[in-house]
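Protein details
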Amino acid sequence: MSKNPLPTQGANDEFLRKEAKRVLKAYKQKDPDAARVVHSCFPDGDVGLQQVQLALARSYGFDSWRQLLAALPRLARFIDAHTLQISRELESPLSVVWSAVSTSRGISQWFTKTEMRSEAGARFVFEGAYAGHIARFEPMRQIVFAADDGGTTEFELTDCNFKTTLLLRDVLRPDFACPIHVLEREGPISAHQPGGPGTHWAGIVAGWHSAMDALECYVSKCNPYDLEHQELVKLYDTMITHYYEEGV
């Protein structure tokens, strides 16, 4: 398997249309996995590309192909083999979002119970997740959490006239492997690491996606369209596997 970096653009219309064509071709070749996708919507008869697109969208938890395409800007993107990025445009002022990502009380509301002081160099503990120290702390702009076992999680904020653009970057240590407890707790798809050590697996990407949705709900008091965790895992596993296969 190639260890080339993932494409920087993330999932896009072209990726999804190629995936639909791949499923259609596999279905015509009697592939059982493709048949499961198609038959979930169309149990009998011949199908074309539009029917496969609908079946594929519903297999990812969307009601329609159009709804799946509309969700693309909310999906994670990959900057390089070790770095994922998720962006959200939030209907909240900068000060509210900053408090949500830079204080123990704020983070505990949408992520996990957190203990820390809001200053550079301070220790943090994300209960049930990981611990480390705050590597960078620039009020109202950026906070970087450095994990004890390597890697960083960064939140960068931009003021946009009473709204806020929030950018999450999660960087893994180059030799970091998916922990065995993820496989035991969530199963092989969640723990699948097609790019090898140091690359994100579907479960962690889906987890950060869900966390950003929860953060958006908390600061904006809204309920954005969201997918179930296992549907996100399936979507991201397909994306990640496709990228590495295309990079061979």
The CA atoms of residues 20 and 53 lie 6 Å apart. Residues 1-9 have pLDDT under 50 and may be disordered. The chain is about 40% helix and 20% strand. The longest strand covers residues 130-138.
